[in-house]
């Protein structure tokens, strides 16, 4: 059985290690996972109630068009329902965009380092990924513009960027969009949109009126706390969404996910409280990192990328033995780790463990 030649050497996506696996491997009773940027405060009580009510309908297929959720989200975003598409997480929307618009030999531009799913899906379709190095952890927008050729079809801007947490401002984004040819799609991945408090951050939805080539991705996995249900969405011009829908599988989002997301939208007080606590957590962790003499990128999502000045993988393993799971293994940043901002208790435990590890693991010379 012969696979596509382009997938043979593709790396398999490595999610953060699960808590249960670490407990079993290391014989630990208490493990804190700060590796996958999950919401430490769970989800809205309204979402839990909606899930419970929906349990009576498990024998029925979900609404393939997610009509009720689409209408609720369209009202929340002040867009038309045909401008929205839902997926099994925003990851699926990424895959669908690439399936719909890229053919072998096409080029797609992204940052290096950024969310790996862009490149993986492009290569599955035989497209060529052009990676433009970050500058101080931030997108080099001019460098991305300079990389455009007559083969360029899609440009990806992860904002805040995963894993560095840096942002592109609205002024920077508008200048960039003004310079991108109209036939090239720009996908703005805003998975951490609701966490950002910086006033310069783009109000991106209204920009679609000026830039019909703009596609915006968001998710219910992060601040809404519905990661287990796998539901994200894309927003774009109706014509673009119609084309993406042509390659979408039927029933790609479940009944529980649709019901929970619809209920979660109603509880913006929960979102605001999570944003406030996350901001407090960022300030606390950054203050402690300053005390420890460690540098980090400005954090605008619910995670911080830290220069531990030691092998990130070694620090990861040492933290793991202390019951703290973080994320290492960034090709362009081998001496860095990414840590999710947790609850106050989790953040305290992380800093305590990190201080011990810094004393135990030798710096890279």
Secondary structure: elements and pairs:
Elements (H helix, E strand, L loop, with lengths): L18 H8 L5 E2 L11 H10 L12 H11 L6 E4 L1 H13 L5 E6 L4 H8 L3 E6 L7 H6 L5 E7 L11 H10 L5 E5 L24 E6 L12 E4 L2 H8 L9 H12 L1 H25 L2 E2 L6 E5 L4 H10 L2 E2 L10 E5 L3 H17 L5
Parallel strand pairs: 1-11, 3-4, 3-5, 5-6, 6-7
Antiparallel strand pairs: 2-8, 7-8, 9-10, 10-12
Helix pairs in contact: 2-9, 3-9, 4-5, 10-12
Keywords:
alpha/beta; Aspartate Aminotransferase, domain 1; Aspartate Aminotransferase, domain 2; seven-stranded mixed beta sheet; three-stranded antiparallel beta sheet; 12 helices; 38% helix; 15% strand
Task: Give a written overview of the molecule.
With 365 residues, the chain is of the alpha/beta class. It folds into 2 domains: 5-42 and 269-360, Aspartate Aminotransferase, domain 1 (Alpha-Beta Complex), CATH 3.90.1150.10; 45-266, Type I PLP-dependent aspartate aminotransferase-like (Major domain) (Aspartate Aminotransferase, domain 2). 38% of the residues lie in helices and 15% in strands. It has 12 helices and 12 strands. The chain has helices at residues 19-26, 45-54, 67-77, 89-101, 117-124, 141-146, 170-179, 238-245, 255-266, 268-292, 312-321, 344-360, and strands at residues 32-33, 84-87, 107-112, 128-133, 152-158, 185-189, 214-219, 232-235, 295-296, 303-307, 324-325, 336-340. The strands form 3 sheets. Strands 2-8-7-6-5-3-4 form a 7-stranded mixed sheet, with helices on both faces. Helix 4 (89-101) packs parallel to helix 5 (117-124). The protein is globular. The protein starts with 18 loop residues before the first helix and ends in a 5-residue tail after the last helix. The model has no long low-confidence stretch (mean pLDDT 95). Keywords: Amino-acid biosynthesis, Aminotransferase, Histidine biosynthesis, Pyridoxal phosphate, Transferase. The modification N6-(pyridoxal phosphate)lysine is found at residue 222. Residues 30-354 form the Aminotransferase class I/classII large domain.
């Amino acid at each position: 059985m012969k696979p596509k030649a382009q997938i043979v050497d593709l790396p398999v996506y490595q999610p953060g290690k699960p808590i249960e696996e670490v407990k079993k491997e290391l014989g630990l009773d208490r493990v804190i996972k700060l590796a996958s940027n999950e919401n430490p405060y769970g989800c809205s009580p309204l979402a839990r109630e909606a899930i419970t009510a929906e349990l009576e309908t498990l024998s029925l297929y979900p609404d393939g068009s997610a009509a009720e959720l689409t209408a609720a989200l369209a009202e929340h975003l002040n867009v038309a329902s045909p401008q929205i598409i839902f997926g099994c997480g925003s990851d699926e929307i990424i895959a669908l965009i690439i399936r719909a618009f890229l053919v072998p030999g096409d080029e797609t531009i992204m940052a290096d380092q950024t969310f790996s799913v862009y490149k993986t899906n492009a290569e599955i379709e035989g497209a060529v990924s052009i990676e433009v190095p970050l500058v101080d952890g931030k997108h080099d927008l001019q460098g991305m513009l300079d990389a455009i050729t007559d083969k360029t079809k899609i440009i990806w801007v992860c904002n805040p960027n995963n894993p560095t947490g840096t942002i592109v401002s609205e002024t920077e984004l508008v200048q960039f969009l003004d310079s991108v040819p109209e036939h090239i799609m720009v996908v703005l991945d805003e998975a951490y949109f609701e966490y950002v408090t910086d006033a310069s951050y783009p109000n991106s939805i209204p920009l679609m009126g000026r830039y019909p080539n703009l596609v915006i991705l968001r998710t219910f996995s992060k601040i809404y706390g519905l990661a287990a249900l796998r539901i994200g969405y894309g927003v774009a011009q109706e014509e673009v969404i119609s084309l993406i829908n042509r390659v979408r599988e039927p029933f790609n989002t479940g009944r529980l996910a649709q019901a929970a997301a619809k209920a979660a939208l109603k509880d913006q007080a929960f979102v605001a409280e999570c944003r406030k606590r996350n901001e407090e957590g960022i300030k606390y962790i950054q203050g402690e990192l300053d005390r420890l003499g460690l540098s980090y990128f400005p954090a605008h999502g619910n995670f911080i990328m830290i220069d531990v000045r030691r092998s990130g993988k070694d620090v990861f393993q040492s933290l793991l033995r202390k019951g703290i799971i973080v994320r290492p293994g960034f090709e362009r940043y081998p001496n860095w780790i990414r840590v999710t901002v947790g609850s106050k208790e989790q953040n305290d435990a992380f800093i305590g463990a990190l201080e011990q590890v810094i004393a135990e693991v030798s710096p890279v010379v």
